[in-house]
Every structure is written in structure tokens, then in C-alpha cells.
Amino acid sequence: SVPLSYFGGLGGASRRGILVKGASFLEALARLHTVVFDKTGTLTRGVFRVTKVVPYNGFREEEVLAAAASAEVYSTHPIAQSIREAYGKEIPLEEVKDFQEIPGHGISAVVEGRRVLAGNDRLLHREGIPHEICNIEEGTGIHVVLDGVYAGYIIISDEIRPDAKEAIFKLKELGVQRIILLTGDQERVARLVAQKLGLDAYFAELLPEGKVKKVEELQAALLNPDKQKIAFVGDGLNDAPVIMRADVGVAMGGLGSDATLQAADVVLMEDAPSKLVTAITIARWTIRIVR
Ligand code: ADP
Ligand code: MG
């Protein structure tokens, strides 16, 4: 039978906007050895702003932005939202056909009869589009291709969440041994975030299944897997597989899809990494009373 104080712990957590789906996850939360964070929307706000549009091959700025915004019309990705916002005009839905979102890559769609690609290097590589190496210093670069011709890139920037640095500091204080960043974003962006937050390691340019593999590798490397648990914290966009794989899969924010909310062992209702610190503190307190 489950000791009564577990219910106290689960209840105390839920009053603080932390849903823990069972006593076993309180145990695991109390024994976290490694915490793996997703970047976009988790450690960062996931609210991108377009800071620059750089056209190529005779295209105009407005044309590049319009094509990307139209291609992104059905995407709920934060990158898509920022591009539509920067464009600022109504997008006629009937002009957008054959919309495809490729996780970790970007978008392919036909806009006013032209094939538009909007995404990262990997998307261009996959589609066999050669492109000049662009000089992106700050932020994430999204390439735009029109009918197979490289049309330029859009630079968008995100911000680290205000409570992230303190949350990382407190996780270390609580004895979490390794704090790791996984992201589908570029190496350069990942390095900057990891440096700013003092993380132990980062792995960039990962596809959703690459994140799963990384978590499996981290699990396999543990000396005492019965006592050392691994949490993955994500915002729930394309995160369901890796949330399922971790010992404690944490979905942050109410934004996640039904699939992720179902896959998660712990749901943090608020968009704040510091809620994980609260969850661990409650878990430790509950376990101590039980013993
Ligand atoms: P993260 O791991 O940081 O949460 P994602 O896996 O959601 O990021 O996306 C990884 C990368 O894939 C993005 O940085 C971007 O380059 C590209 N990408 C994903 N979705 C889109 C989209 N809708 N439009 C353009 N690029 C996208
Ligand atoms: Mg994400």
C-alpha cells in the first residue's frame, strides 16, 4: 500500500501547479542525478523575434518574408509565429497548398504556385539545395528557398527565461550532478545558452529521435541506475518520445500537445524551470516523512 504522506506530497505539489502522476515519480524526483533540458521554449522563452532579413539572388526582403510567413501559416512552432508576426499581413489560406512540417527541419509548402522551403541547413541538405554560407552572428538562421533557388535567410532571436539561471544554480545546490542541454537548434546558439547558464554539457542539431538516443546514452553511462535517475524537461513540442524515455519525463507549460501531456510523468503548469526545483524539494520532503 502507498503510505499516506505520498498523497500529501502529491497534493502539495498540485497546489503549486505541479502534477505528479504517481508516488513512484516522487521517489525518482528525489533521486535525480541528471537533468536534461530542451532549449527552445524550456530554458528560453520560445518567443522569437525577427531581427534581420537578408535576401539573396535578387530577391527582395519583403518577398522573402512574405514567402516564409505564408509557408509557415499552419505551423504552431514559435519560429513560425515570429515570422508571421514580423510579416504582419493577413495570409490568404487558399494560396497555401501541400503544407508539410518536417520536425527538426522546417517547412515545405506551395505558395501561389511556388514551392517554398523555410528551415535550417538540414532541410536544405535534405532537399539538395546548395546555399552560400551565411554569416549569422546572433540568433537562429532560417533559410528560404523559392522554386529551388536560394532566396535568403531570416534571423530570429530568442531569450533565456528570467528564472533559468537561478533554477540551474539551485539544482546544483540540491545535488543534481549533471545538467545538460539538448536542442535541434544550431551548435553556436546552443553553446551560448549553455555558457550563459553554466550547464555541464550541450548537444545541438539533434532530431527528436536523436534526443531519445542521447537520453539512452546518459542512462547507460550511470554507475548506479537504481538510485540515479534522469529527468528530461521539455515544452511539449515534438518532445513526447524523449519525455517517455526519461525516468522522469517533465512537460513544462500548458502548451504541450495531448500526446506530450499524456506521455509526461510530471506536468509543470507554469512556464518556469524553477518549478522543477520546487518539485524536487517537495519530493525530498515527502520521502523523508515516509521513511
Ligand atoms: P528545439 O530542440 O530547440 O526545441 P526544434 O526541434 O523544435 O528545436 O527545432 C529545431 C530546429 O528545426 C529549429 O531551430 C529550426 O532550425 C528548425 N525548425 C523546426 N520547426 C521549424 C519551422 N516551423 N520553421 C522553420 N524552421 C523550423
Ligand atoms: Mg522544443
Automatic annotation (TrEMBL):
GO terms for molecular function: ATP binding; ATP hydrolysis activity; metal ion binding; P-type cadmium transporter activity; P-type zinc transporter activity. Its main location: membrane. One of its GO terms (cellular component) is plasma membrane. Keywords: ATP-binding, Cadmium, Cell membrane, Magnesium, Membrane, Metal-binding, Nucleotide-binding, Phosphoprotein, Translocase, Transmembrane, Transmembrane helix, Zinc. The keyword Membrane applies. It is found in: Cell membrane. It comes from the Bacteria. Belongs to the cation transport ATPase (P-type) (TC 3.A.3) family. Type IB subfamily. This is Cd2+/Zn2+-exporting ATPase. The chain holds residues 291 to 581 of 628 of the full protein.
